Amino acid sequence: MNPLDLKLFLDEKVILYNKPDFIESDPIQIPHLFTNKEDVEIAGFLAATIAWGNRKMIINNAYKMIDLMGGSPYDFIMNHKEHHLESLEGFVHRTFNSLDFVTFIKALQNIYINHGGLEAVFNKNIEDNSLQKSIHEFKKVFFEIEHLQRTQKHVSDPLKGSAAKRINMFLRWMVRKDNTGVDLGIWNNISPAVLSCPLDVHSGNVARKLGILTRKQNDSKALAELDTQLRLMDANDPVKYDFALFGLGVFEKF
Prior knowledge:
Blueprint: H1 3-17, H2 37-49, H3 55-68, H4 73-79, E1 92-93, E2 96-97, H5 98-114, H6 118-122, H7 132-142, H8 165-175, H9 201-210, H10 220-233, H11 241-250
Antiparallel strand pairs: 1-2
Helix pairs in contact: 1-11, 2-8, 9-11
């Protein structure tokens, strides 16, 4: 396909998949449970953190995380006592366990008390029309509290080669202004133009078949290559094409 035909093809797929019934089978349904900004972003961050593996299991375990916090994530994070954390014992999603969960609770509390919240932290280090440096600096802030070394693997670092799929997905949820009501778009200080595509096996394979990605590994270099191509198609809202790439891969087995 020539560039114009490719853009028209992907634009059609965005319209097909970027609509409310997408929510029913996607972890984005978890932050959609809430209206309070802090609840939305915490629920989204936790759901995105465990978003690898079977989608049904991801969603079920994300609901379980919310239930363990009494259905009020922000209140739990800000006001829990040490004995409340005992209720998290036994939680596990693949390699993310209750010890990691406890660390995440404490790290998020530190961010809200001492750093102005999640949006403020991610807004600080936007460089080169990209949030990847922001993610790197976010990880430093997140783990400035006492923590187990093992928990660090659950927050990706794009400056160490990761495509950081789950954090980029979370940022899409929070930042992207979506006329159809899928992405929540509750953060107003970060432009959707600086978002990066949540690159995973599905979107990567489709992008390669379409000729907009040549690198074989799904890493930070591949993400930069894909971002460049998507921004040529829509500089203001490049990650809308995540719906097209993901939908083609997961639903159409493209």
